[in-house]
Amino acid sequence: MYLNTATLLVVFYLNSIVSPVFTIRNVTLTIEPGTAVARGTNVTVRCNAVISSSGGEALSREYTIYKDSMKVYTKTSSTAEDLLYPLPDVRVSNTGKYKCEINIEGKQQASEVKKLTVTGLSKPVLHTPNVVVSEQGEVTATCRAPGETGSIYFYFYEDSNVILENQASSNLLETRFHLSRPGIHKIHCTYSVFVMPEVLNSEKSNTVTVSVQELNIAPVMKIFPQSKIYEGDHLTITCSINTSLQSSESVHLYLSQGTQLLSTAATKVNHSLVALVTDPGEFECRAEIGNVAKVSTEKISVTELFSAPTLTMSPAEVFQREYMTLTCKSESYAAERLNRRELTYTLEPPENLLVSRSAGVFTGKALPYDFNYTCVARARGIVKRSETLTVRPKVSVSTPKISVVGRAVLGQPFKILCQSDTGSLPINYTLLKDNAQLSTTSVKQPFEQALFTVTINESDEINKYVCAAKNNHRGHLLSKKINATVIVPLSRASLTVIPTLTEISEGDHLYLICGIKGTPPITFKWYRLGNRQPLLTNTSNINTMDYQVHRLSKEHSGTYYCEAINHANTVVRSEMVTIEVHLALWKKALIGGFCLLVVSVLVVVLVLYFKSKRGKREAAAELSVKPSSPKSDDSLTVNLTHNTEVYKAATGRLDRAADSVWSERPPEAASDEVSSVVSSEPDVEYTEVVHPQPVDPARGEHTHNLVLLLFFTLQMLNDYFCHSISNHLAQCPPCVPNLLTKTLLLCFPHIPF
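Structure for Ig-like domain-containing protein, as requested:
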């Protein structure tokens, strides 16, 4: 017995501490009979959960139903049966999105969302307990939406106009309201159910007819005098009520003119005032009892005693400190009630400085600034003011100034500006030349300028222009004569070279003077033909300018020209000048002196040479005399040859074959020589033997050394000359270095140099 009990307790304990293993496989929500139903249908929301577990014990399941994310139903079940959420006799308020969620021991799973749509609203019902009310009474009305639930708004209408609207927490709304006027009124109601995000509207309810009875109450208003009312008359107005109504509510009376409340009282209102044309002519007497108001209105017509004055000025335009007249006048007045002399006029403000000359006429000088005037007319306590007249005295034009816009270029159009520092617009400007009008322009707007376009052909023509300005009845004001520099376009460009072209030598200082005719400042540019860039650019305020080259050399030879431009923007170019740089004068003199020296030395050498040659020939020659012929025409031939031993010994040139300097004479020469030795004796043949004298070898050697010494001396002079020239030139003149050598070789071809 005890053993079985203990066994059962152990089994129960083990079952309580060991939880079964489970999983939620699926949760499904269905709406029956469908997701779209008509109002009044019984709908069931079914939630089915498929769960797998390891034990046979039932699991505790917690079901929750949501509508539009809000919890609407919860139930806990330990069975596997589906959860059913009934919606009997559904209404449109049941429309929404439904979802089912299951929770087992903290493990949750939800179904998909399903939407239920319920269509159809019930017809509203309107009820009023009383269908006849007094004008000040209230109507009690009840509007009901049978069977509807949810958030409901009710609307009450008179015909198509909304009288009242309100929200109710149930399907019934009772309210009170006033009807605005007596008579028959037809009333109905509707309602709207809010099913987010939609609003569903019902049809119209039944129509109820309500009769409103008018109260027996009438306001009475009287105005004195009742005949023709003139401006300034005193008016008396009464406002009272005529009624037989016995009511606990008090009556209030209100008297008003236009929007201005004049007076108020309980039973009767009395009010007095002065009639004015400017005041509204409609008066209202209003009686109020509760929420009911009765109104009585009266209109009056007020005849104007005199019209509002008008203020005018003459002349229409006035200049500063000139006399003007202001006239103040009322154009009309009631002659049957008012004498013209009763009207008085004054000007405001009092410090206007104008004097009254007669009724409404004021004169004086215009102020130097703008001033506002107002005319005030008075008669029988009535005061009227004119519109404000602003007098803006004009400023007389000042003496104009005349000037050139930009630059005045001879022969080209340019503009002349005529302008006054002060003066009221419009201002008429006239351009004159030699007192003759050329053109007139009117300046009407600020910042507008009087510009005239002219062209002149002579420089002094610019001084003939003047300007006239006028803006009033006075005469023109003349400006001074225009004072402006006339720019003469450049012309006649010339390039002068100093020194003259034939005298330009190396080492000279060259001046290229560019001269031009025109108006400075002038920009000069010098160019060398073949170069794009100018050699020099300079601006001068005179018409000539030079470009200088110091220490001329052969490299400065070339073709030069200059260009010039001034403010007329016309470029002129000179003729091209070709410059050739000659040798320096001292170089020419040096070369000439050297050549003279060379010639002098050569002459001396030649003289010495020929003398030496003659001596040697006479000493070494062998004279041969042949027998003379018995005839007088036989010739005697003398042969002198260089092939003798004597000549070779004298010259020391035994290794060189020399040509004969003497050839056989012509017959004429031979006969002359023979005739000198033939006597008148009979022909006898003689033979003369001449023995040659020994020649001194030192004499030939001396001549040779003298020639060599002369050569070396000239060579030294040549080197000195070339060295001197090379200090000024890049190299020695090509005619100099070999001049000595060539000269000596020409004269002494048999001497090796």
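The helical segments are 2-17, 585-620, 645-651, 667-675, 697-726, 739-747.
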